[in-house]
Amino acid sequence: MAEILPVNHFKNRKRYTERKHFIQERSKKISSGYKSDIKQYQVYCSSTAQPEGLESMLDYLYVSIVEQRVKKNTWEKRLSAIKRYLAVTYDVDFESEKAVLKDVSYIRSLYDDEENKTLIRVKGKQRVDKDDLVSLISTLPIREKAIALVNLVTASRPSEMVAIKMRDFDFDDNSVSIYMKKQKAWFDKRLNQLTVKAVKDYKAKYNLNDDDYLVGRVYKNGRYESVKVSTEAYRKFLNRTIGLTAYNLRKTQVSSMHERGADLVTITKQTGHSSTQTLAEHYLNVSDKTVDKFL
Protein backbone atom coordinates (compact mmCIF):
# COMPACT_ATOMS: atom_id res chain seq x y z
CA MET A 1 0.00 0.00 0.00
CA ALA A 2 1.44 3.34 -1.05
CA GLU A 3 2.35 5.78 1.67
CA ILE A 4 -0.07 8.70 1.97
CA LEU A 5 1.84 11.93 2.28
CA PRO A 6 0.43 14.65 4.53
CA VAL A 7 -0.93 17.83 2.99
CA ASN A 8 1.85 19.86 4.61
CA HIS A 9 4.39 17.92 2.59
CA PHE A 10 3.03 19.35 -0.66
CA LYS A 11 2.63 22.82 0.85
CA ASN A 12 6.23 22.78 2.01
CA ARG A 13 7.48 21.61 -1.39
CA LYS A 14 5.52 24.37 -3.09
CA ARG A 15 6.90 26.99 -0.69
CA TYR A 16 10.47 25.72 -1.15
CA THR A 17 10.10 26.06 -4.90
CA GLU A 18 8.66 29.56 -4.58
CA ARG A 19 11.49 30.56 -2.24
CA LYS A 20 14.18 29.29 -4.60
CA HIS A 21 12.53 31.08 -7.51
CA PHE A 22 12.38 34.30 -5.51
CA ILE A 23 16.06 34.07 -4.53
CA GLN A 24 17.06 33.35 -8.12
CA GLU A 25 15.09 36.33 -9.40
CA ARG A 26 16.40 38.65 -6.68
CA SER A 27 19.99 37.60 -7.34
CA LYS A 28 19.55 38.70 -10.96
CA LYS A 29 18.08 42.08 -10.11
CA ILE A 30 19.89 45.17 -11.40
CA SER A 31 19.33 48.47 -9.60
CA SER A 32 17.37 51.04 -11.60
CA GLY A 33 20.07 53.53 -10.65
CA TYR A 34 22.49 51.65 -12.91
CA LYS A 35 20.36 51.86 -16.07
CA SER A 36 21.89 55.04 -17.44
CA ASP A 37 25.48 53.86 -16.92
CA ILE A 38 24.73 50.47 -18.44
CA LYS A 39 23.12 52.12 -21.47
CA GLN A 40 26.18 54.31 -21.99
CA TYR A 41 28.43 51.25 -21.84
CA GLN A 42 26.25 49.43 -24.39
CA VAL A 43 26.35 52.44 -26.72
CA TYR A 44 30.14 52.58 -26.38
CA CYS A 45 30.49 48.89 -27.26
CA SER A 46 28.25 49.35 -30.28
CA SER A 47 30.03 52.49 -31.52
CA THR A 48 33.46 50.86 -31.19
CA ALA A 49 32.35 47.47 -32.58
CA GLN A 50 33.35 45.62 -29.40
CA PRO A 51 31.48 42.76 -27.79
CA GLU A 52 30.24 43.29 -24.27
CA GLY A 53 32.64 41.73 -21.82
CA LEU A 54 35.69 42.22 -19.64
CA GLU A 55 37.96 43.63 -22.35
CA SER A 56 35.47 46.25 -23.47
CA MET A 57 34.74 47.09 -19.82
CA LEU A 58 38.42 47.85 -19.20
CA ASP A 59 38.62 49.83 -22.44
CA TYR A 60 35.56 51.88 -21.54
CA LEU A 61 36.84 52.60 -18.03
CA TYR A 62 40.20 53.72 -19.44
CA VAL A 63 38.60 55.96 -22.07
CA SER A 64 36.28 57.40 -19.42
CA ILE A 65 39.33 58.95 -17.76
CA VAL A 66 41.81 59.76 -20.52
CA GLU A 67 39.31 60.93 -23.16
CA GLN A 68 35.96 61.63 -21.53
CA ARG A 69 37.56 63.11 -18.39
CA VAL A 70 34.81 61.97 -16.04
CA LYS A 71 34.93 62.70 -12.32
CA LYS A 72 36.15 59.91 -10.06
CA ASN A 73 32.80 59.44 -8.33
CA THR A 74 31.13 59.09 -11.75
CA TRP A 75 33.78 56.57 -12.79
CA GLU A 76 33.25 54.47 -9.68
CA LYS A 77 29.51 54.39 -10.34
CA ARG A 78 30.15 53.28 -13.92
CA LEU A 79 32.38 50.50 -12.67
CA SER A 80 29.77 49.23 -10.21
CA ALA A 81 27.03 49.34 -12.85
CA ILE A 82 29.02 47.47 -15.50
CA LYS A 83 30.24 44.83 -13.06
CA ARG A 84 26.67 44.16 -11.99
CA TYR A 85 25.48 44.08 -15.60
CA LEU A 86 28.16 41.61 -16.72
CA ALA A 87 27.65 39.43 -13.63
CA VAL A 88 23.90 39.16 -14.23
CA THR A 89 23.86 39.04 -18.04
CA TYR A 90 26.97 36.98 -18.75
CA ASP A 91 27.50 35.20 -15.41
CA VAL A 92 30.89 36.83 -14.93
CA ASP A 93 32.37 35.88 -11.56
CA PHE A 94 34.54 38.85 -10.65
CA GLU A 95 35.91 37.15 -7.54
CA SER A 96 37.74 34.75 -9.82
CA GLU A 97 38.85 37.47 -12.25
CA LYS A 98 41.85 38.62 -10.21
CA ALA A 99 43.82 39.85 -13.23
CA VAL A 100 40.90 41.99 -14.41
CA LEU A 101 40.42 43.53 -10.98
CA LYS A 102 44.13 44.30 -10.87
CA ASP A 103 43.84 46.07 -14.23
CA VAL A 104 40.89 48.04 -12.86
CA SER A 105 43.04 49.21 -9.94
CA TYR A 106 45.77 50.34 -12.35
CA ILE A 107 43.24 52.32 -14.39
CA ARG A 108 41.82 53.83 -11.20
CA SER A 109 45.34 54.97 -10.23
CA LEU A 110 45.19 57.45 -13.13
CA TYR A 111 43.25 59.67 -10.75
CA ASP A 112 46.41 59.92 -8.62
CA ASP A 113 48.31 61.62 -11.45
CA GLU A 114 48.86 65.38 -11.26
CA GLU A 115 47.19 66.06 -14.61
CA ASN A 116 43.98 64.45 -13.35
CA LYS A 117 43.73 66.27 -10.03
CA THR A 118 40.69 68.26 -11.16
CA LEU A 119 38.81 64.98 -11.71
CA ILE A 120 38.85 64.11 -8.01
CA ARG A 121 37.54 67.47 -6.87
CA VAL A 122 33.95 67.14 -5.72
CA LYS A 123 31.87 70.26 -5.28
CA GLY A 124 29.01 69.45 -2.96
CA LYS A 125 25.47 70.73 -3.13
CA GLN A 126 25.38 74.32 -1.93
CA ARG A 127 23.57 75.47 1.17
CA VAL A 128 21.71 78.76 1.18
CA ASP A 129 20.81 81.18 3.95
CA LYS A 130 17.96 79.51 5.81
CA ASP A 131 16.24 82.71 6.92
CA ASP A 132 16.17 84.02 3.37
CA LEU A 133 14.91 80.66 2.13
CA VAL A 134 12.09 80.53 4.68
CA SER A 135 11.09 84.06 3.70
CA LEU A 136 10.90 82.94 0.06
CA ILE A 137 8.93 79.79 0.88
CA SER A 138 6.45 81.79 2.96
CA THR A 139 5.38 83.69 -0.17
CA LEU A 140 4.48 80.50 -2.07
CA PRO A 141 0.93 79.15 -2.60
CA ILE A 142 -0.39 76.87 0.17
CA ARG A 143 0.57 73.52 -1.41
CA GLU A 144 4.04 74.55 -2.54
CA LYS A 145 4.71 76.21 0.80
CA ALA A 146 3.77 73.12 2.81
CA ILE A 147 5.83 70.74 0.70
CA ALA A 148 8.92 72.96 0.62
CA LEU A 149 8.83 73.53 4.39
CA VAL A 150 8.50 69.81 5.12
CA ASN A 151 11.44 69.08 2.83
CA LEU A 152 13.56 71.78 4.42
CA VAL A 153 12.81 71.04 8.09
CA THR A 154 13.06 67.26 7.77
CA ALA A 155 16.10 67.39 5.45
CA SER A 156 14.55 64.62 3.38
CA ARG A 157 15.62 63.09 0.09
CA PRO A 158 13.34 63.16 -3.00
CA SER A 159 12.55 59.44 -2.66
CA GLU A 160 11.39 60.05 0.90
CA MET A 161 9.32 63.12 0.12
CA VAL A 162 7.25 61.51 -2.65
CA ALA A 163 6.31 58.62 -0.32
CA ILE A 164 4.98 60.69 2.61
CA LYS A 165 1.24 60.34 3.22
CA MET A 166 -0.96 62.53 5.37
CA ARG A 167 -1.40 59.76 7.91
CA ASP A 168 2.34 59.94 8.58
CA PHE A 169 1.88 63.32 10.29
CA ASP A 170 1.24 63.59 14.02
CA PHE A 171 0.17 67.19 14.47
CA ASP A 172 -0.27 66.83 18.24
CA ASP A 173 3.34 65.69 18.56
CA ASN A 174 4.72 68.08 15.89
CA SER A 175 6.30 65.19 14.00
CA VAL A 176 6.16 63.16 10.81
CA SER A 177 7.17 59.53 10.28
CA ILE A 178 9.32 59.11 7.19
CA TYR A 179 10.49 55.86 5.65
CA MET A 180 14.19 56.20 4.88
CA LYS A 181 14.64 54.05 1.81
CA LYS A 182 18.41 54.13 2.05
CA GLN A 183 18.42 52.84 5.65
CA LYS A 184 15.28 50.74 5.16
CA ALA A 185 13.85 52.08 8.41
CA TRP A 186 11.23 54.53 9.72
CA PHE A 187 12.32 57.76 11.40
CA ASP A 188 10.20 60.22 13.36
CA LYS A 189 11.28 63.73 12.41
CA ARG A 190 10.38 66.89 14.27
CA LEU A 191 8.40 69.75 12.75
CA ASN A 192 8.29 73.39 13.81
CA GLN A 193 5.03 75.27 14.23
CA LEU A 194 5.37 77.08 10.91
CA THR A 195 5.56 73.76 9.07
CA VAL A 196 2.72 72.17 11.06
CA LYS A 197 0.43 75.11 10.25
CA ALA A 198 1.39 75.02 6.57
CA VAL A 199 0.58 71.30 6.27
CA LYS A 200 -2.74 71.76 8.13
CA ASP A 201 -3.71 74.60 5.79
CA TYR A 202 -2.80 72.50 2.75
CA LYS A 203 -4.75 69.52 4.06
CA ALA A 204 -7.81 71.66 4.70
CA LYS A 205 -7.77 73.45 1.34
CA TYR A 206 -7.54 70.26 -0.71
CA ASN A 207 -9.64 68.19 1.70
CA LEU A 208 -6.90 65.56 1.95
CA ASN A 209 -7.48 62.19 3.61
CA ASP A 210 -5.05 60.10 5.63
CA ASP A 211 -4.21 57.92 2.62
CA ASP A 212 -3.43 60.89 0.34
CA TYR A 213 0.16 61.70 -0.58
CA LEU A 214 1.71 64.93 0.68
CA VAL A 215 3.17 65.74 -2.74
CA GLY A 216 0.70 64.05 -5.07
CA ARG A 217 -0.21 65.92 -8.23
CA VAL A 218 -2.29 69.06 -8.83
CA TYR A 219 -3.56 69.85 -12.32
CA LYS A 220 -3.91 73.30 -13.84
CA ASN A 221 -7.60 73.36 -12.96
CA GLY A 222 -6.66 72.91 -9.29
CA ARG A 223 -7.74 69.27 -9.02
CA TYR A 224 -5.59 67.23 -6.63
CA GLU A 225 -4.74 63.61 -7.44
CA SER A 226 -3.35 61.28 -4.80
CA VAL A 227 -0.50 59.61 -6.64
CA LYS A 228 3.09 58.79 -5.83
CA VAL A 229 4.98 60.92 -8.33
CA SER A 230 8.46 60.00 -9.55
CA THR A 231 11.54 61.44 -7.89
CA GLU A 232 12.39 63.13 -11.19
CA ALA A 233 8.99 64.83 -11.26
CA TYR A 234 9.58 65.99 -7.69
CA ARG A 235 13.00 67.42 -8.55
CA LYS A 236 11.43 69.41 -11.38
CA PHE A 237 8.69 70.60 -9.01
CA LEU A 238 11.25 71.95 -6.53
CA ASN A 239 13.36 73.57 -9.22
CA ARG A 240 10.29 75.20 -10.71
CA THR A 241 9.03 76.33 -7.29
CA ILE A 242 12.15 77.60 -5.50
CA GLY A 243 15.00 77.03 -7.95
CA LEU A 244 16.75 74.55 -5.63
CA THR A 245 17.15 70.81 -5.15
CA ALA A 246 16.15 68.67 -2.19
CA TYR A 247 19.84 68.34 -1.41
CA ASN A 248 20.25 72.11 -1.27
CA LEU A 249 17.50 72.07 1.36
CA ARG A 250 19.06 69.12 3.16
CA LYS A 251 22.47 70.76 3.40
CA THR A 252 20.91 74.08 4.39
CA GLN A 253 19.04 72.50 7.30
CA VAL A 254 22.09 70.56 8.52
CA SER A 255 24.32 73.63 8.38
CA SER A 256 21.71 75.82 10.06
CA MET A 257 21.22 73.37 12.95
CA HIS A 258 24.98 73.08 13.41
CA GLU A 259 25.52 76.85 13.39
CA ARG A 260 22.82 77.23 16.04
CA GLY A 261 24.68 74.87 18.35
CA ALA A 262 23.18 71.43 17.67
CA ASP A 263 25.64 68.57 18.14
CA LEU A 264 26.07 65.83 15.53
CA VAL A 265 23.91 63.29 17.37
CA THR A 266 21.02 65.75 17.50
CA ILE A 267 21.36 66.55 13.80
CA THR A 268 21.46 62.87 12.77
CA LYS A 269 18.26 62.26 14.74
CA GLN A 270 16.52 64.79 12.50
CA THR A 271 18.20 63.91 9.20
CA GLY A 272 18.27 60.14 9.63
CA HIS A 273 21.96 59.76 8.80
CA SER A 274 23.28 56.38 9.85
CA SER A 275 26.48 57.84 11.29
CA THR A 276 27.82 61.15 12.53
CA GLN A 277 30.94 60.55 10.43
CA THR A 278 28.96 60.59 7.18
CA LEU A 279 27.22 63.77 8.30
CA ALA A 280 30.48 65.50 9.20
CA GLU A 281 32.30 64.49 6.02
CA HIS A 282 29.59 65.38 3.50
CA TYR A 283 27.49 68.11 5.07
CA LEU A 284 29.46 70.03 7.68
CA ASN A 285 32.21 71.79 5.83
CA VAL A 286 32.95 75.03 7.66
CA SER A 287 30.63 77.61 6.11
CA ASP A 288 31.68 81.03 4.84
CA LYS A 289 29.38 82.55 7.44
CA THR A 290 31.35 80.87 10.23
CA VAL A 291 34.66 82.03 8.77
CA ASP A 292 33.33 85.58 8.41
CA LYS A 293 32.71 85.76 12.16
CA PHE A 294 36.45 85.58 12.79
CA LEU A 295 37.72 87.95 10.09
TrEMBL record:
Keywords: DNA recombination, DNA-binding. Belongs to the 'phage' integrase family. It comes from the Bacteria. The keyword DNA-binding applies. The lineage of its organism: Bacteria, Bacillati, Bacillota, Bacilli, Bacillales. GO terms for biological process: DNA integration; DNA recombination. This is Recombinase XerC. InterPro entries: DNA_brk_join_enz, Integrase-like_cat_sf, Integrase_catalytic, Tyrosine_recombinase_XerCD. GO terms for molecular function: DNA binding.
